[in-house]
Structure formats: C-alpha cells, structure tokens
Amino acid sequence: MTTADTSRRHADLMDRNYRFQRHIYDFTRKYYLFGRDPMIERMQVPDAGSVLEIGCGTGRNLVLVGRRYQSAQLFGLDISEAMLSTAAGTLARNGLSARTRLSQGDATNFEPKALFGVGSFDRVFISYALSMIPDWQDAIAAALRALSPGGSLHIVDFGQQEGLPGWFKAGLHAWLRNYHVTPRLTLETELRMQAGLAGRPMTFHRWYRGYAWHAVVEPIATMEDC
C-alpha cells in the first residue's frame, strides 16, 4: 500500500468518525481533553506571528489562539474535510476568517508553501491528535520541519495516567479505543530523539497526575545559548 493510499484511508476513517460527532465534539470533549487551554496560554506567540495547528478539528483551539493573540496569523491543517467544514464555520462566527487559512492535508507529510503559501511558522501546536495519527512519529517530524529556526512546537495529548489508579487507566484506554485513539507510550522518548536531531531543546511535563502530557520543543539552540 502506498503512502497516498494510507493517507486516503485515514482521511476516510476520520470523515466517517466525525461526520456526525463534529456537531457535538466541542461540548463533549471539554470533559476529558484537559490541558488545551493552558498550552495555548503558554505559547507566547510573537506580535503578528504565524501559528499552525496540526489536526485543527472544529477550529475550537484556533479561536482561542486568535482571541489570546490578537495579531497572530492563524493556519489550520486537518485530514478530514468534514472537520474543516466545521472549522471554517466556527472561525467565521468568531470573526477570524480574515486572518485564518485552512487546508486539507496529511499531518505526516505536508508542504507549508504548497498548502498555505508560507515557508514556516513561529508556532506549531498539536492538541490530542498524535494519539489518533497512525504514523505519529512522522507527524512530529513534519511539524519540526514546518518550524522557523526561532519557532517552537507545542504538544498536549493523553499521557499514561501514571499517578492515577490502574482501573482508571485501563477503563480510559479501553474507552478511547472506540474512537481510534491510542495514547503514545513512547511520546517523550520520540520527542527527545527528534528534538535532539534538530538541535532543539525540549521540556516535558506530566499534568493532572499523568492524565495529560505536555511538551514544548524550543527554538534551535545557538552558540550564545551554549
């Protein structure tokens, strides 16, 4: 199976999964997608900076970024046409269409210039999407390639619930499988490896007793930083 075939199959799966769910997605997810808002607060987008969300879904997070950073230029990538349709409506209702560009694409292999007309971004963030992307390691690599040298990558996703009872972790993971979601056990290891190869420092935090993991891949280290 070719890469294009894999991408198309994943796009079809996401469209089927969210064709109806997208209408209630934001209402239901606020009860268990913890850490999204604190991540956005910590992004420190520069004035008139460019921000890309990979797996932008309904546009909920881009609206928060647009409100928090009022001069930011917003970009959203998603593999699901259904979700992008909802995102366009969400951003329009919030008066953000003029400074937002949305595009359909595969998170594991996309070209910013071709999709958005820009070469790189000041901030890239991925919110609870890596746990839904089969080739999630490639998505991290693509996100790092899309960063400007002084840009940073911000990630929040399901952790391994290290500080929570075993029954809670088992129940949560079983329930998430119904939605094709798999928390990534080796997320920290993979991020540290890829960040190191890119010459970028990284910080990693376990939030809410490990319910969510939060990572920031920082700007490329310079001689002055050493």
TrEMBL record:
One of its GO terms (biological process) is methylation. The keyword Transferase applies. Residues 51-151 form the Methyltransferase domain. Pfam families: Methyltransf_25. The keyword Iron does not apply. Keywords: Methyltransferase, Transferase. GO terms for molecular function: methyltransferase activity. InterPro entries: Methyltransf_25, SAM-dependent_MTases_sf. This is Methyltransferase domain-containing protein. It comes from Pseudaminobacter soli (ex Zhang et al. 2022).
